[in-house]
Amino acid sequence: MNQDLFIQNLFNALTVGSLYALIAIGYTMVYGILRFINFAHGDVFMVGAYFIFFTVNFSIIPWPLAALAAIIGASALGILVDRVAYRPLREAPRISALISAIGVSFLLENLGLVIFTGLPRPAVQPAWLVDPIIYGNIRILPLSFVVPAVTAVLVLGLLFIVYRTRPGLAMRSIARDIETTRLMGVSIDRTIALTFGLGSALAAAAGIMWAMRYPQIHPFMGVLPGFKAFIAAVVGGIGSIQGAVLGGLLLGTVEIVAVANWPELSGYRDAFAFVLLIVILLFRPTGLMGEKMEDKI
Amino acid sequence: MKAANPSPISEPHALRNRLSTLGSAALLFLGIWWAGHNLDGYQTRLLNLVAVNAILALSLNFIYGFSGMFSLGHAGFMAIGAYVSALCILTPAQKEMIWLLEPIYEPLAEFMTPFVVSVFLGGLAAALTSLVIALPVMRLGGDYLGIATLGFAEIIRVLFTNLAPITNGAIGLRGIPPYADAWWNYAWLLATLFVILSLLKSNFGNVLKSIRDDEIAARTMGIDTTAYRTMAFCVGGFFAGVGGALMGSLVTTIEPKMFNFQYTFNILLIVVAGGLGSVTGSVVGAAVITILLEWLRIIEYPMDFGFIRIPGIPGMRMVIFSVVLMLIIIFRREGLLGNREFSWNAFYDFFGSLKKRPDVHLGHLLRFLRLVKKLLAGGQP
Amino acid sequence: MSECTLAEDNAGRFTAKTLHGPGGSGGVAPPGGPLLELSGVTMRFGGVTAIDDLSLKIPPQKVVGLIGPNGAGKTTVFNVVTGFYQPQEGRLEFEGQPLAGLPPQKICALGIARTFQNIRLFAGGTVLDNVMVGCHVRRKARWWMAPLCLPVFLREEKSIKEKSYALLERVGLARAAREKANSLPYGAQRRLEIARALATEPSFLLLDEPAAGMNPQESEDLMHFIAKIREEFNLSILMIEHDMKVVMGVCSHIWVLDYGRLIAEGGPEEIRNNPWVITAYLGRPAEGGPHSA
Fold it and tell me: Do A2 and A222 meet the contact criterion of CB atoms below 8 Å apart?
């Protein structure tokens, strides 16, 4: 591979990896606290992309504000989903919540189909983000700098909330031991709602940026990125935010590098993540940064 | 003393119940014969779908409801069954017509087997695949197993899209001979029921349920939990393959895209609605959900009332069904039947008690049958 | 129903076992040798040493006890013996055969069965189903014989049912055979768990706090019950128990653990008067104890 292509691929990997990382954080936070896969998370990502599309195209709100509105809207959706579909199942077996999550996922996708129709829509793309910068043979979108930068800011913000504030302390405490935390007088439901809100906000941010890079939005756009981001969370070690970021970047790199080196494998691109998942589960089921959980006998 | 205590372990009325089972099987085939002469194409298709979905639901329930493994890879096993069986029943002439872009892998071009063997081979291929998958994933529990099996199903789908010399790639296979009529489908349903019930009613059924309820206690009881979970996974995979094979011949066209997660979702919906851990529930659930799913198609078609035209709403059907699934899991987690099963003793007790009630008579039964017929016809566009 | 009827009712392996000593394990301990021997067993979790250099010999055909304060490592000993934990150091030999590296299911097949401190019945099954699961480890037919209805399989199914029912009669639960296991009262659940363990035809049975949550009358009954099954099933029993009346009343030999270390062993009388034991239990030096004078 020549150097120009290498640099270009590096930025591609960083961009895709950052987006996976942002989605993966939502999976890992919910899994860390409630121990189930929030299947609907990928669809919140999709809804985020639609929110900004409609706000920008059907109002005079400038797009930075629209992006903020979309992120807030998606957070509200995440909290609503938890309230309606998961909270009634807190005491039920974990698999019940998982089935409910699959239900929510299909509901959001098909509701998207009903409301937005299956017609792919053009994404909101501010021109300054997608005018390629050309330097010799290298052709890079400004987006490729912006996405990792925005991701870094968001992740640092999240880490601040989780490690330096009281609600963050409550979150970490619930992840360790929900019953004891309840006894300490922490409002479990409010903290869980906050977790869903934060995770959904990051997913919506990822959705908005994803739509700029792959400039079409449709109701099923969240399915595959959702699965892959979940896999990134498992690879990084489920329950760990840093692990989710690492897993996302790793997965993005594997996809881009593999296709760049072996173009004949491009048809199998969507299978890489799943193969990676199975390899990780086989050799290091707790992921790269996860802690081992012992079964109590 | 032995005589005074007539074996406490044997089932009461064993002979009567066995005869009842044989009788109802005969009645079922009589019904199929009647259906062959009286039902139109659409209704027959619905009847067939019920049988195939029941097979698929039984296989998933065996894996999940009885053995406690949350598997989301059903569509993958179905795809394998459908493709293998289709490759076995397509004629060499058809194969030459279908593989246009890339020639077919040579040894397959002339290969052909009778339908019953093809379906069996489809099931066997799916079972072998389950075995290969089981080796790495069996030690995972709960939702990890779910996501890993889902991953395998996706890998299978991507493989099938790319292995054009065997699968004809994304275009799929068309013109699969429609051998899967009601006779075959219901015969395979009965075979599935027989195998699954004979396993579940034996002590092996207790063993599977014990692993589901408490794996640590099961291992303490000397049960090789990995071996038995693998067995259950493969038996379930076999019947998923059989269901896929029948489905392929029923719809006559298959492509990799068809076996997506949505398919697994539909089967999961049937199992959960019918009742996890209930064989009866899976069969009843298959009938109810299949008919409802078809019936609700009506809202996705445009409706024309002469003076006003309502456009169809694509996606509405699945909106309703996702809501149904969530309502079931939130408000009635045990589904229609919980883990209860149909038993002849309960059946005869029920009719014995009906006899004492003068207000119930044959007319009720006839009215019920008419309602069923109306429901079968209801979804016709 | 009397004992003699049972012997007649249950032809075959069950009776053979009860008449001719431990079944299933194939070999019987060499005369005079211990049934189970732990030597120098050490089990650590991270930095915590749960069992520290533990050596003990379980004699055949006896009821013996393992006592100690909470957190002394008693249940860890059970988990090591039944193969759930692999100790970092030391050897375990059962009937002269090393147990190292064997998974729980293999250890059960050798003839070691156990119950759990927090009862672990199979909640989805009936009382009879639970005992039948215990019979599984001794069965010969394979699963694929079930749909083929092979006579071997059908005969075995019948004998498993008969054997399980007979076991339920012995522990006084035959009437409840068709009820859900988790609908039984607490004491009956404990007995059912013991019956399920007995169904695996053990020569060594580990009971983890069998008297927990029982009133004095129930504990009294339990003592007789334990002595009775030891006698009838011809096995050794090791029990963890906090109820000293039960331990002293039924055990012929007692080991005392504290912080994972063996601090005393001996007959009930010796243990009762051992100053170390009193210290460990009461947390302060007793008169003549290790820290006094």
Answer: no
Q: Which residues of A touch B159 (CB under 8 A)?
A: 268, 271
For chain B, list the contacting chains (3+ Cβ pairs, <8 Å): A, C
Does any domain span residue C291?
no
Rg (chain B; Cα; Å): 22
Tell which of B155, B161, B263 to mutate to test the A interface (max A CBs under 10 Å). B155
C122: nearest CB among B199, B213, B228: B213
Angstrom distance (rounded) from CA C206 to CA C108: 11
CB neighbour list of residue C22: distance below 8 Å, 6 or more residues apart: C28, C111, C201, C202, C203, C234, C235
Domain CATH number, residue C167: 3.40.50.300
Q: Is residue C7 part of a domain?
A: yes
For chain A, say whether C82 makes contact (Cβ under 8 Å).
no
Measured between beta carbons, the chain B residues lying within 8 angstroms of A267 are: 158, 161-162
* Residue of C109, C147, C196 lying closest to B199 (CB–CB): C147
Q: Which domain holds residue C64?
A: 3-282
Chain B residues lying within 8 Å of A219, measured CB to CB:
315
**Count of the separate structural domains present in chain C:** 1
Domain boundaries, chain B: 39-345+359-378
B70 touching C, CB under 8 A? Answer: no
What's the pLDDT tens digit per position in B327-374? 988 888 888 777 788 888 888 887 777 766 666 666 777 777 777 776
CATH architecture observed for domain B39-345+359-378: Orthogonal Bundle (1.10)
| pLDDT value of residue A127 | 77
Q: What is the pTM of this model?
A: 0.87
pLDDT value of position C23: 40
The Cα angle at residue B64 between residues B60 and B66, in degrees rounded to 5: 105
Paired residues of C205 in beta bridges: C113, C237
All structural domains of chain A with their residue ranges: 3-283
Average pLDDT, chain B: 87
Contacts of C79 in chain A (CB under 8 A): 297
> Is C287 within a domain?
no
Kind plus residue range of the DSSP H or E element containing B308? none
Name which CATH class applies to A3-283.
mainly alpha
Query: Over 90: is that where the pLDDT of C291 sits?
Result: no
